Amino acid sequence: MKKKIAILVRDRKSEALRMAVGATLSNDEVSVFIIDHKLEIDDDIEVNLEMLSDLKAKIFSNHPENPFEQKSTAEIALMLSEYDVVIPY
Q1: Cα–Cα distance, 24 to 69 (Å, whole number)
Q2: Domain count of the chain?
Q3: Contact (CB, 8 A) for 16 and 86
């Protein structure tokens, strides 16, 4: 049975995105939520973002400077209740 997995990206951004890529290996539905900070894109982060895009993972952010689908903190909180697993980083 396919699970819905949410990865919350806060402090360890590169590690969180690497984890999100790994979570896609079981063919589960993975969504990434970049919370409260602008994501500074370095080589490692860029590779993981490209891979997540290729794997059709959804990426959301509540920070207006991030180039991902924008959601308010309240909207994100409501969305998280729909996930089977929430992994904070």
Answers
A1: 19
A2: 1
A3: no
Quote the domain boundaries for residue 53. Answer: 4-88
- Write down the pLDDT at residue 63: 98
What CATH code is carried by the domain that includes residue 21? 3.40.1260.10
Question: 36: alpha, beta or left, given left = phi > 0 and alpha = psi -120 to 50?
Answer: left
Residues 23 and 4: their CA atoms lie apart, in Å, by 10
Given this model, what pLDDT does residue 27 score?
A: 86
Closest to 59 in 3D by CA, of 22, 16, 30, 24: 30
Mean pLDDT per segment of 10 residues, for the chain of length 89 residues? 95 95 93 97 96 96 97 98 96
